[in-house]
Fold each of these.
Amino acid sequence: MNALLQEFLAASVSMTALATVIAVLFWLLTGMSPWPGLVLGELAGFGFGTAMLALASPRRR
């Protein structure tokens, strides 16, 4: 498997986990549903965060 693809998959999993934790914490702490404001904001930042994590990770040889 291509190294960049592996990094992209790892970054996607990391961003998904982070977005889920933030949404659940928001819901538990405020009692308000994170939909649509927080969730849509996270989706907008998902692509940028994934690209940043995948490209900034250490390179494997």
Amino acid sequence: MLGRLLKYDLKQFLKFLSVFYILGLFFAVLTRLFLNIDNSLFMKIVGEICRGAAFSMLFSAFANNILRLWVKFRQSVYGDESYLTHTLPVKKHCIYSSKMLTAVITAFVSLIVLILGLFVIYYSKENADALKAMISPILNTFNISLLTGLVLVVFVLYLEFINILQCGFTGIILGHRFNNGKLGMSVLFGFIIYMLSQITIVILMFIPAIFNSDFMNIFVTTKAMNLEVIKFAVVYSIISYIVINIVGFLINIKLFNKGVNVD
């Protein structure tokens, strides 16, 4: 049954987001074409307009992705649609799991489309060399390639995006346990949970520092760090984010299984 729920949720969300995806990539291609036409002021102006439209569509996909996930979760679990949702022959944890998996998948698709759009607009050997030269000190420090460095950055941003989404779900679940001011309480709890998740990340990062003086230098000094310590910090932070997201998922499942008060 989880598979059917997930298929329905994904179809609904991707149908909505595909408008932004298609328009974003369409304007990205037009930007590439028009800005590559030399000796034409008109084409340059049109190209800049297309670039603005591409940015608007690509980043709107992200904004609408997160906002619509929260709105749809509230409507389908606590609003008018909830009466249909809760009559389905499916356990509560499957309902939440479908919403969370939809968030994970659509966030990944939105991220890929954004990267593809930026690649279409900006990629050239000159731009790639300029970017590599700009961040080469960091790449040389970690002894990694440009592609590996970009993948790591994107992956961390993706994990943070998932954390934000899940904190919003937690806020909605907690906020709707109140009889009044449910929307306001949802926003408040979502913000509090997000801040607690960030504090937890810092605490998790501080734990190995207790046992390793080199790692402690990250918190107490601005001097250059040992390469192995920096590598460990990056890997450990990624693992910490993954743990936070998994724990958050399990907590939300537990809260959701306690019952739902529909509006």
Amino acid sequence: MDFTVTQRFACSPAHYWAKTRGPEFDAAVAKEAEVYAQNVETRRDGDRLFERVAVKHITPMTPVAQKAFGKTHLEYMQEIETDDGAYSTRWKIVPAFFADRVVCKGDSLVRATPQGCERLIRGSIEVRIPLVGGMIEKQIGDQIQRSYTRAEPVIRRFVEAG
């Protein structure tokens, strides 16, 4: 299953990028997105930042997903490669369970628009579990997209603060 989320902001890509970096921003977004997130590794190489973040969703998965995975909450390691010069990231989610059967990856890009900028998030989810894989893909995709939607007002508050 592929998904796309587009968020628009009334500021330049450079302003957006500068205001949406750092631990205060990350904590505010995690709280609103209803996830626990802990950075476990960070390294920089020029304009590129490489991070590994342990994430656990506060909201339980649906009963079907719980039964398939034997867990109540979605947990994963998010591997993020950030290119500050291009205002972009590439990310991959490595589930804490069934990592050989669940593939989730994507990218995001902040680009200029006539009204300011937009953040374009593209991703794909594949769950290789017979009979219920497609349903679980949709449920995980909905949960991830809901997190992005819940985080948008927080982002807006940071970028519009000046």
